[in-house]
Design a protein that fits this description.
Blueprint: H1 20-24, H2 31-35, E1 39-41, H3 52-60, E2 65-67, E3 89-91, E4 112-114, E5 135-137, E6 158-160, E7 184-186, E8 207-209, H4 220-225, H5 227-236
Parallel strand pairs: 1-2, 2-3, 3-4, 4-5, 5-6, 6-7, 7-8
């Protein structure tokens, strides 16, 4: 099994080339950096926290994309809430985040949320309130099951949950069965032993990935044949009502 967020390779802090200006340069963008792009990006800076002033300036410049990839954040920055009415994309890839706060439900316009390579085991039920969310990437974490709140994400089209420790799939109407818009589902490289046949009823699925699990059924040959073959096989296993 590939390493989870704690052990994922991290880029070490880059050494300066000897220039004093480079050594003392702030990793945080100023408002002029954000004005033209409406993007707040702090990448490979090994930061553990972000000053409130950075988010204040981001709000003034109406930033709607925040990228905090490959740092050392132990939590979602509290002052990120300043952008709750603006944010459409949030990328927290490769940090050390172990929980998602309930306040994330306030990000009413959030469409794409990426948090792979962290230390997550669950998502709060309030997370299901993100009714605009189209993409959720929780790969390379520590999930042992899909969070229950996922069934409430009615706009979800892409769910990436590969490389975790997921053991079971809830494909009922309270789980994945509720996601009528789901098109991409990646559950590869987990600990899944059985796939519920009713997963085959997800009519909009275009890409389904299950390789790398200790499955008895479907067999490897069916998995290798692709999404349509997997879904067709699963539908043949659905019990016929008496």
């Amino acid at each position: 099994m590939p390493a989870d967020g704690l052990n994922s390779p991290r880029v070490q802090q880059r050494k300066s080339g000897g220039g004093g200006d480079e050594k003392n340069r702030s990793p945080f963008p100023d408002k002029y950096d954000m004005r033209g792009t409406r993007v707040l990006s702090i990448y490979k800076s090994q930061i553990t926290e972000i000053p409130m002033e950075v988010f204040e300036e981001a709000r003034q410049e109406e930033v709607n994309v925040v990228q905090l990839k490959d740092n050392r954040l132990g939590e979602v920055p509290k002052d990120l809430n300043m952008l709750s009415e603006l944010l459409t994309q949030l990328d927290l890839t490769k940090n050390q985040i172990s929980y998602i706060p309930t306040s994330m439900s306030q990000f009413s316009k959030l469409a794409h949320f990426k948090v792979p390579c962290n230390l997550l085991r669950d998502l709060p039920m309030e997370f299901g309130g993100l009714q605009m969310l189209c993409t959720l990437d929780i790969s390379f974490n520590r999930f042992e099951r899909l969070p229950r709140c996922i069934g409430d994400l009615q706009s979800l089209e892409t769910l990436l949950a590969h490389d975790n420790h997921i053991k079971d799939i809830d494909a009922s109407e309270a789980g994945l069965g509720a996601l009528k818009n789901l098109q991409v589902l990646d559950l590869s490289n987990n600990d899944i032993r059985q796939v519920p046949p009713i997963l085959g009823n997800l009519q909009n699925i275009r890409e389904l990935y299950l390789m790398g699990n200790p499955l008895r059924q479907p067999r490897h040959q069916i998995l290798s044949a692709g999404t349509n073959a997997i879904l067709a096989f699963l539908r043949t296993r659905i019990p016929v009502p008496q």
